[in-house]
Amino acid sequence: MNQEEFKRLTKEEISRRIREGVKAIIEQVLEEEMTEPLAAGYRERTPSRRGERNGHYTRDLITPAGKIAQLRVPRDREGTFLTEVFERYKRMTGEVEEAVLEMYLQGVSTRKVAAFTEGLSRVRIGKDAVSRVAQRLEEALSAWRGRPLELAYPYLYLDAAYFKVNWGGRVVDLALLVAVGVNEKGYRGHGRSPYILLLAVEPAGGERKEAWRNLLKGLVERGLRGVRLVISDDHPSIRQAAMAELPGASWQRCVVRFMGNVLAHVPQSERGVVAEELQEVFVARRRGTAESLAREFVERYRDRYRRAVEVFAQGLGEALVYLDFPSGHQKRIKSTNVLERLFRAQPTGLVFR
Q1: CB of 108 closer than 8 Å to CB of 116
Q2: pTM score
C-alpha cells in the first residue's frame, strides 16, 4: 500500500464519520418537521391530530464529504408533506459538515446543534427536538470512538496537529492527538482493504502527557495489541506514554523531523549540500551501511558545524530503529510523513477553526 492509498483511506474514514453525522441531523430534522402539519409527534395521539404518517422513502444526498446513501425521508398518508430542508442544506453546504467535524473534535452540545438546525428548517425546532438530535449525534460519535479493535497493529503512528477553534466563545489553539494503526497486512496489501486505520482522534485537554497516556489507555482498553513499533516526533510526552502503556514496543524517531533538527544548526547557504549527505544515511537499507555513512558525516562536519553534529550523534540511534524491521516496510515507518499529509489534506475541503 503506497502513501496515496494510505492518505485516501484515512480521509475516507473521517469523511464517513462526517456523512453519518450529517445524515443523523437531517433525518432527525425531517422527523421534527413532519410533526407540524400533522399536529402530532410520532405515535402521538392528540385531539388536534390532522393526519397519519406513512413510513419513509429514501434518497441520496451529495455532500462535500461524499454521497449519503439511503437517507430516510418521512411521508404522510395524504402525500401533502413538503420540506425545504434539502434546498436550505444546499445553501448551507459546508457549514453543516464543518459543524459536525467541530463537534466531533470538541464534543456535542445542544447549543451547537440548535445553531444549524435553525438554518436547516423553516419549522422552529424545539429544545426537546434539539436534544434528540444531539443525542443521536453523541451516540454515533461515541460508538465510533469506543469501537473494539479486533486486529493486531504492529505499527502505530502518533502525532498532534494544531488548529484554531472556537471554544467557549474564544478562538484558541487546539491540539488534536491522532493515532493511526497499520495491521499485519498493512504494507503488503493492495487496493482499499482496511489494513491502515485511523484508530483515535482526541482533543488534548490539560496536561499533554496525561492526554497521550489517556489516548493509549483507551486504545488498549478497546483491544489494541501487538504493537511492535511506535513512530512519532521526539516528543517526551509521547515517548513516556508509549513506554508506560505499550511495554515491549520500540520507538522510532521521525527521520524527516530529525533531519530538520540537525539542519537548523547549519547556515542556510550550506543546508542543501548537508541535507543531501544526511539523506544518504537514511536511504541505506542496512544498519552497517547507515552507521558507516553516519561516521563519515560526523568526521566531515564535526569542526564546521559542531552543534549540528552533536544533535545528529545524540539522536541517530533513535532515528535508525526502522532498520530492525522488514526492508519492504522501512521507507514508510521511518517518519510520520503519512500523518503530515493527512493533516494537510482536509477531508471535506473544510478548514479547522
Answers
A1: no
A2: 0.73
